[in-house]
# Entry
Amino acid sequence: MAAHITLENDILIVKVNAKGAELFSIVNKQTGLEYMWNADPAFWAKTSPILFPIVGTLWDDTFLYKNREYKLSRHGFARDAEFEVTESSNANVVFSIAATEESLKKYPFDFQLKVKYELEGNSLSVMYIVHNRGLEKMYFSIGGHPAFKVPLMDGTNYEDYYLLFNKVEDTPRWPISSNGLIESTPVSFMKNVDNIQLTKGLFYNDAIVLKHLRSDCISVRSDAHVHGLDFHFEGFPFFGIWAAKNADFVCLEPWCGIADSVNHDKELTTKEGIENLSAHEIWSRVWKVTLY
# Structure
């Protein structure tokens, strides 16, 4: 199978790796602008991992289900899996993985995960489709982690950019403990504002974790030029914003699920934000990025 798939229309060229079904390039054909981080391993060697079947970190990398212990490393195993291409055309592609003997040792559910990338005009939509192929209820989390290049234009600096929310937010952030768990007490963050000024120091204490935002679109903008992006994430109750220390990107991370709380008892079925699917049911969510 090809190492990566290329999608193209009149405006955009998009490239996605088969490994992890990971988006790694979005170029505007008219301007030549690349919108994705370049995966420089000196900072962070990924571009847009898919977080499944967990988001974030578990207590001791462990969850309990039906009185058994299972081990899953941070963000789960989909990001390192070899996906199969099940549908492909110029403007869309569907990648798929499913449960294996190996995965069932770590995650005891008979799942299929499809990831559909679709180009329309100057937008790219990314759909996650989860199918419970088993006979009992399935518990899972899923999230996106795309890293967008900042600064976007030569001659501009990181601090020339800001995040614009489509609703005024009055929301705290949830700090992350030293072992990757969500602290029990939030701290003041956005106080009746609709934007965050980007600075490198913003991420020195790990990701900004937000819950139940009013907004369902966050834009990357600069007053120095007209280019940027709108990131739409309706139906994702949690959101992470992150960059590696001093790196030239910002991750906009829509999550259905969240890392374990420092108070959690490791039980998968009562984990905060956990999704569940009855036998043979199918679940889906879409995020979309519009580039200009």
User: Anything to note?
Assistant: The two ends are 32 Å apart (CA to CA). The chain has a mean pLDDT of 97. The longest strand covers residues 161-173.
